[in-house]
Specification:
Blueprint: E1 3-6, H1 16-25, E2 31-36, H2 48-57, E3 62-67, H3 75-81, E4 85-89, H4 95-104, E5 108-113, H5 119-122, E6 131-135, H6 151-164, E7 170-174, H7 182-188, E8 192-195, H8 197-200, H9 205-213
Parallel strand pairs: 1-8, 2-3, 3-4, 4-5, 5-6, 6-7, 7-8
Protein backbone atom coordinates (compact mmCIF):
# COMPACT_ATOMS: atom_id res chain seq x y z
CA UNK A 1 0.00 0.00 0.00
CA UNK A 2 1.20 3.48 -0.88
CA UNK A 3 -1.17 6.39 -0.23
CA UNK A 4 -0.12 9.87 -1.28
CA UNK A 5 -0.97 12.84 0.95
CA UNK A 6 -0.01 16.20 -0.59
CA UNK A 7 0.92 18.73 2.08
CA UNK A 8 -0.79 22.06 1.51
CA UNK A 9 2.08 23.77 3.33
CA UNK A 10 3.73 23.88 -0.12
CA UNK A 11 0.60 24.95 -2.02
CA UNK A 12 -0.21 28.43 -3.30
CA UNK A 13 -2.33 29.79 -0.44
CA UNK A 14 -3.70 32.50 -2.71
CA UNK A 15 -5.49 29.76 -4.67
CA UNK A 16 -5.78 27.16 -1.94
CA UNK A 17 -9.19 25.72 -2.89
CA UNK A 18 -8.05 25.35 -6.52
CA UNK A 19 -4.81 23.70 -5.43
CA UNK A 20 -6.64 21.19 -3.22
CA UNK A 21 -9.11 20.33 -6.00
CA UNK A 22 -6.24 19.97 -8.45
CA UNK A 23 -4.31 17.41 -6.40
CA UNK A 24 -7.53 15.50 -5.66
CA UNK A 25 -8.23 15.26 -9.40
CA UNK A 26 -4.57 14.31 -9.94
CA UNK A 27 -4.94 11.21 -7.75
CA UNK A 28 -4.18 12.27 -4.18
CA UNK A 29 -5.57 9.92 -1.54
CA UNK A 30 -5.45 12.30 1.44
CA UNK A 31 -4.90 16.04 1.98
CA UNK A 32 -2.27 16.73 4.66
CA UNK A 33 -2.70 19.94 6.68
CA UNK A 34 0.16 21.17 8.88
CA UNK A 35 -0.95 23.28 11.84
CA UNK A 36 1.88 25.17 13.58
CA UNK A 37 1.61 27.55 16.52
CA UNK A 38 5.00 29.30 16.67
CA UNK A 39 5.69 27.67 20.07
CA UNK A 40 6.03 23.91 19.61
CA UNK A 41 7.70 24.65 16.25
CA UNK A 42 9.24 27.93 15.04
CA UNK A 43 6.57 28.75 12.48
CA UNK A 44 2.91 29.76 12.37
CA UNK A 45 0.56 28.39 9.72
CA UNK A 46 -3.22 27.94 9.87
CA UNK A 47 -6.20 27.39 12.15
CA UNK A 48 -9.63 25.73 12.08
CA UNK A 49 -11.16 28.28 9.67
CA UNK A 50 -8.72 27.33 6.92
CA UNK A 51 -9.35 23.63 7.61
CA UNK A 52 -13.07 24.35 7.22
CA UNK A 53 -12.40 26.00 3.85
CA UNK A 54 -10.26 23.07 2.70
CA UNK A 55 -13.01 20.68 3.77
CA UNK A 56 -15.42 22.45 1.42
CA UNK A 57 -12.93 22.10 -1.45
CA UNK A 58 -12.46 18.33 -1.36
CA UNK A 59 -14.20 15.03 -0.67
CA UNK A 60 -11.09 13.04 0.26
CA UNK A 61 -9.88 12.66 3.88
CA UNK A 62 -8.27 15.60 5.67
CA UNK A 63 -5.22 14.65 7.72
CA UNK A 64 -4.64 17.48 10.22
CA UNK A 65 -1.20 17.35 11.84
CA UNK A 66 -1.12 19.42 15.05
CA UNK A 67 2.40 20.70 15.66
CA UNK A 68 1.22 22.73 18.62
CA UNK A 69 1.48 23.01 22.38
CA UNK A 70 -1.56 21.93 24.43
CA UNK A 71 -3.34 20.17 21.53
CA UNK A 72 -6.07 19.06 23.93
CA UNK A 73 -7.43 22.62 23.79
CA UNK A 74 -7.93 22.50 20.03
CA UNK A 75 -8.79 18.96 18.91
CA UNK A 76 -12.54 19.55 19.15
CA UNK A 77 -12.32 22.71 17.02
CA UNK A 78 -10.38 20.94 14.29
CA UNK A 79 -12.73 17.96 14.38
CA UNK A 80 -15.69 20.34 13.97
CA UNK A 81 -13.86 22.06 11.10
CA UNK A 82 -13.83 18.78 9.16
CA UNK A 83 -10.69 16.83 10.05
CA UNK A 84 -10.95 13.10 9.38
CA UNK A 85 -7.53 12.37 10.89
CA UNK A 86 -5.92 14.27 13.77
CA UNK A 87 -2.34 13.64 14.83
CA UNK A 88 -0.50 14.92 17.90
CA UNK A 89 3.09 14.76 19.04
CA UNK A 90 4.63 12.39 21.54
CA UNK A 91 6.76 15.34 22.65
CA UNK A 92 3.84 17.75 23.24
CA UNK A 93 1.19 15.98 25.30
CA UNK A 94 -0.14 13.02 27.26
CA UNK A 95 -0.52 10.78 24.22
CA UNK A 96 -2.73 8.12 25.75
CA UNK A 97 -5.23 10.73 27.00
CA UNK A 98 -5.30 12.85 23.83
CA UNK A 99 -5.48 9.94 21.38
CA UNK A 100 -8.44 8.52 23.28
CA UNK A 101 -10.14 11.93 23.20
CA UNK A 102 -9.57 12.25 19.44
CA UNK A 103 -11.20 8.88 18.79
CA UNK A 104 -14.23 9.98 20.81
CA UNK A 105 -14.56 12.87 18.35
CA UNK A 106 -14.94 10.28 15.55
CA UNK A 107 -11.57 11.14 14.01
CA UNK A 108 -8.72 8.76 13.30
CA UNK A 109 -6.08 9.38 15.97
CA UNK A 110 -2.43 9.68 15.01
CA UNK A 111 0.67 9.55 17.21
CA UNK A 112 3.67 11.52 15.90
CA UNK A 113 7.37 11.13 16.71
CA UNK A 114 10.13 13.64 15.90
CA UNK A 115 13.63 12.71 14.64
CA UNK A 116 15.47 13.19 17.99
CA UNK A 117 12.96 11.18 20.06
CA UNK A 118 13.56 7.62 21.26
CA UNK A 119 11.30 5.23 19.36
CA UNK A 120 11.42 2.68 22.19
CA UNK A 121 9.77 5.18 24.55
CA UNK A 122 7.15 5.85 21.87
CA UNK A 123 6.15 2.21 21.34
CA UNK A 124 3.88 1.85 24.43
CA UNK A 125 1.58 4.57 23.06
CA UNK A 126 1.10 3.05 19.62
CA UNK A 127 -1.79 0.85 20.80
CA UNK A 128 -3.90 3.99 21.45
CA UNK A 129 -3.42 5.30 17.90
CA UNK A 130 -5.13 4.45 14.62
CA UNK A 131 -1.97 5.42 12.74
CA UNK A 132 1.54 6.62 13.51
CA UNK A 133 3.42 9.45 11.82
CA UNK A 134 7.20 9.42 11.64
CA UNK A 135 8.77 12.82 11.00
CA UNK A 136 11.81 12.48 8.76
CA UNK A 137 12.72 16.16 9.14
CA UNK A 138 12.64 18.40 12.20
CA UNK A 139 9.15 19.93 12.05
CA UNK A 140 8.50 23.59 11.40
CA UNK A 141 9.30 24.29 7.76
CA UNK A 142 8.81 22.69 4.36
CA UNK A 143 11.54 21.98 1.82
CA UNK A 144 13.99 20.19 4.15
CA UNK A 145 16.01 17.10 3.24
CA UNK A 146 15.03 13.69 4.56
CA UNK A 147 17.02 12.55 7.62
CA UNK A 148 17.99 9.01 6.63
CA UNK A 149 18.59 7.84 10.19
CA UNK A 150 14.81 8.11 10.71
CA UNK A 151 14.29 5.15 8.39
CA UNK A 152 15.32 2.89 11.24
CA UNK A 153 12.43 4.29 13.32
CA UNK A 154 10.05 3.30 10.53
CA UNK A 155 11.49 -0.21 10.42
CA UNK A 156 11.20 -0.58 14.19
CA UNK A 157 7.60 0.62 14.19
CA UNK A 158 6.71 -1.67 11.30
CA UNK A 159 8.11 -4.65 13.20
CA UNK A 160 6.30 -3.64 16.39
CA UNK A 161 2.96 -3.13 14.66
CA UNK A 162 2.90 -5.96 12.13
CA UNK A 163 5.16 -8.65 13.57
CA UNK A 164 5.13 -8.23 17.35
CA UNK A 165 1.53 -7.08 17.86
CA UNK A 166 -0.17 -7.93 14.53
CA UNK A 167 -2.18 -4.73 14.60
CA UNK A 168 -3.81 -2.97 11.66
CA UNK A 169 -2.31 0.52 11.96
CA UNK A 170 -0.85 2.50 9.09
CA UNK A 171 2.56 4.16 9.17
CA UNK A 172 2.68 7.68 7.75
CA UNK A 173 5.97 9.42 6.90
CA UNK A 174 6.47 13.16 6.50
CA UNK A 175 9.55 15.15 5.55
CA UNK A 176 11.82 15.50 2.55
CA UNK A 177 10.20 12.73 0.52
CA UNK A 178 10.56 12.85 -3.25
CA UNK A 179 10.74 10.45 -6.18
CA UNK A 180 14.44 9.73 -5.63
CA UNK A 181 13.96 8.46 -2.04
CA UNK A 182 10.33 7.33 -1.77
CA UNK A 183 11.31 3.69 -2.39
CA UNK A 184 13.61 3.79 0.65
CA UNK A 185 10.74 5.09 2.77
CA UNK A 186 8.21 2.50 1.59
CA UNK A 187 10.74 -0.33 1.81
CA UNK A 188 11.27 0.60 5.47
CA UNK A 189 7.50 0.35 6.06
CA UNK A 190 6.01 3.73 5.18
CA UNK A 191 2.49 3.48 3.78
CA UNK A 192 1.08 7.03 3.77
CA UNK A 193 3.54 9.33 2.04
CA UNK A 194 3.30 13.05 2.80
CA UNK A 195 4.83 15.17 0.05
CA UNK A 196 4.86 18.93 -0.31
CA UNK A 197 7.27 20.45 -2.80
CA UNK A 198 7.59 17.07 -4.57
CA UNK A 199 4.00 17.64 -5.75
CA UNK A 200 3.18 21.35 -5.48
CA UNK A 201 6.62 22.26 -6.79
CA UNK A 202 5.88 20.51 -10.10
CA UNK A 203 3.85 21.79 -13.03
CA UNK A 204 2.07 18.47 -13.58
CA UNK A 205 0.50 17.30 -10.31
CA UNK A 206 -0.89 14.11 -11.85
CA UNK A 207 2.52 13.05 -13.12
CA UNK A 208 4.15 13.91 -9.77
CA UNK A 209 1.65 11.80 -7.82
CA UNK A 210 1.87 8.91 -10.29
CA UNK A 211 5.67 8.90 -10.02
CA UNK A 212 5.49 8.83 -6.20
CA UNK A 213 2.99 5.96 -6.33
CA UNK A 214 5.05 4.05 -8.88
Amino acid sequence: MRLIAPSILSADFGRLAEEVKAVEEAGADIIHVDVMDGHFVPNITIGPDVVKAVRKATAIPLDVHLMIEHPEKYIEKFAEAGADMLSVHFEACDLEKILTAIRKLKCKAGAVINPPSDVEKFLPFVEYADFVLVMTVNPGFGGQSLIHSCLEKIRRLHKHIYEDKKWNKLIEVDGGIKVSNVKEVTSAGGQIIVAGSAIFGKKDYKKAIEELKA
